[in-house]
Design goal:
15 helices; Thiolase_N (chains A, B); 11 strands; 2 domains; Thiolase family protein (chains A, B); Peroxisomal Thiolase, Chain A, domain 1; isoprene biosynthesis (chains A, B); two-stranded antiparallel sheet; homodimer; Thiolase-like (chains A, B); globular; alpha/beta; 388 residues
């Protein structure tokens, strides 16, 4: 079977895009992606929009039809893919299926969310609507799960609180070199550790911000990719999996089964193991999540993930750089865009287009996009065409 | 390539499901579908939910994760597919892609919507949020498009107003024989023609109701279907297409390009022509839409669709029965469920399970699901395995 290739990628600047709406952001990223690939809008036959909550946040639905209109991509088929905070990863999976099933020869995926026009309370309330009603009723929202899990992790595995803070420091430092990041500001460990408490032991700098933004990817069969460019990557593995929807039903809350299951499937599909991965974008909505994913993706034994940051392994000059883009932490987290933007970073790194963040000739990159508190997860592995 | 089969189908009673929520309805339809197929929940590897607006209507998101929880289907991958009123058809296309790409060996699709707890005004306002903002601002909502288009159609093609009324009469009569329909009440032509005006020339009985309900289908490769049952159908064609998002930009508002394009693709995929279709479920959200789809699917020349109802061709004993289920008109229209429920009717007719509505050994059935005012459309062709 022909492999599925990605021939274009783009993202808008992330941050506060006052005066613009989801529609504007999607069109900006979508047009830039087509431009990046040198592909005309009328060549697109499938158009997916990853978005969690435009109806709730803006009172506007039908975003896929609007985007088909704004790009002049009719009669391309369109649909919206929602998997809460992992909608972007789910969109990648939908786009892959669309090409792999031979339904499509050119699929454009655009993820986006417009959030900053709401107060933080309003925006987080929309996010909290994804939790099980019994959790929401008792006030156990995603940040409080993060606090509880961080406390358990630190206790269970004898990890220092500082290790979590160092994740924020690293990802902020990477964000400085990402011109599209929401925060291009380095922070030191004391700033993180002294920031206001949100959910003990986690503090303000352990959390990602509320963000507006959009990101896009263009998919086609590898045979088509070869005809139009020699600058493309292949999707060698992609899979998704769910964990319990009620977080307290998990046998071990420090293990994210959705990460384990989806990455097992993605590795098998790609015929890869964790050792083959040169770098990864992880879903650091909360700093603690970077450790959990690092372990559950097989990069470290359970309880040992925190040592990677202490040893510098996940820095840009380490052996397994994590979140070279700045991560959700400093790049920002426009829900439906985030999973797509993760893959945009992997694409740019693999093609040597990552500017000041560029790694040294990586061949295999991974993106892990987490919905809810690991309720649903997608893992994607991208490679250069000739990766060994 | 292995064909994609449907091995189970179900729908909840449609109507006013007071005291129940989307979550309850999805779980009811999903469990009944698995039961119909004799397949255990843990055999499901992909689980799609077709739903337009649970966040807007109920303040609850994350329905796919909730359903995976309620059916105990973890770690199955889940996502929500939204294409406004054609979310169900988009779900069928997603499920087909998932099996056809060999990502899945068993995909459960459950469509649903909970609407009746809202006032009609609140519910229709959520639906109207799918229109282009410039249309919404001027008060041109879906019912008013229907009125304008009906007026144009009647004038242009010299069709009698009564022909539209007869669509309502036929579909209500079919609904009497559908135990799951919202309205099991025959109406006569005078009742339709004398009902209150909604959007001239259309009256109350030209419109579908606000409905709660859910419907489900179970997909797998035909090779797997053969192992578990001899009662299955195959998806021989499925495709979707968009039309302009701004309705007044259409060259001819009585032609739905999304129907033309998606059915052309679906016929080609199935190696079928309109003449091969034995019966169809069309998206009669408004009576006028049944004529437009009838023509744009190639069942009649443009402007001749209204003659089919006058000649009795679309009745259950006609040569091309339309909406044997009662259609959206009398069965009801829970947005995300409707496209799935159309295919449930086709499945039951093909397998001889349609009870008092049963047609005489049909082999090829078609379902056309319309989003917005034709902004996005999916067409699905189902067949018995041995259809010639």
């Amino acid at each position: 079977m022909d492999r599925v290739a990605i021939v274009g990628a783009s993202m808008t600047p992330f941050g506060d895009r006052e005066g613009e709406w989801l529609r504007d952001l999607l069109a900006e990223a979508g047009a830039a992606c087509l431009d990046d690939a040198g592909v005309a809008a009328d060549a697109v036959d499938h158009l997916y929009v990853s978005n969690m909550a435009s109806g709730e946040l803006e009172g506007q639905t039908g975003a896929p039809n609007m985007l088909a209109h704004d790009l002049a991509a009719q009669p391309a088929y369109t649909a919206r893919i929602d998997q809460t905070s992992s909608s972007g990863g789910a969109g990648i999976y939908a786009a892959w299926q669309s090409v792999a099933s031979e339904a499509s020869e050119m699929t454009l995926l655009v993820g986006g969310e417009k959030m900053t026009h709401k107060t933080t309370g309003e925006a987080t309330d929309v996010i909290a609507s994804l939790t099980h009603p019994v959790e929401y009723k008792h006030g156990v929202t995603l940040p409080s799960f993060a606090g509880l899990t961080a406390r358990l992790y630190l206790d269970e595995y004898d990890a220092p609180r500082e290790s979590l803070g160092k994740v924020a420091v690293k990802n902020h430092r990477n964000g400085v070199d990402n011109p599209k990041a929401q925060f291009r500001k380095a922070v030191d460990l004391d700033t993180v550790l002294d920031s206001p408490i949100v959910a003990d032991p986690l503090r303000l700098y352990d959390f990602c911000p509320i963000t507006d933004g959009s990101a896009a990817l263009l998919f086609c069969p590898e045979s088509v990719a070869r005809e139009i460019t020699d600058e493309y990557v292949v999707v060698s593995g992609v899979a998704g999996a769910t964990d319990t929807h009620v977080v307290h039903e998990r046998a071990d809350p420090t293990t994210m089964r959705g990460v384990v299951e989806s990455s097992d499937q993605a590795y098998e599909m790609a015929d890869r193991s964790p050792e083959d991965v040169d770098f990864a974008e992880l879903h650091d909505m909360f700093t603690i999540l970077e450790f959990l994913q690092f372990e559950d993706l097989g990069f470290a034994e359970k309880g040992e993930g925190w040592k990677a940051i202490e040893e510098g392994r996940t820095e840009r000059d380490g052996d397994l750089p994590i979140n070279t883009s700045g991560g959700l932490k400093s790049k920002g987290h426009p829900l439906g865009a985030s999973g797509v933007a993760q893959a945009v970073e992997v694409y740019e790194q693999l093609l040597g287009e990552a500017g000041d963040r560029q790694l040294d000739d990586p061949e295999v990159g991974l993106a892990c996009n987490v919905g809810g508190f690991g309720n649903c997860v997608t893992t994607t592995i991208l490679e250069t065409p000739e990766a060994e």
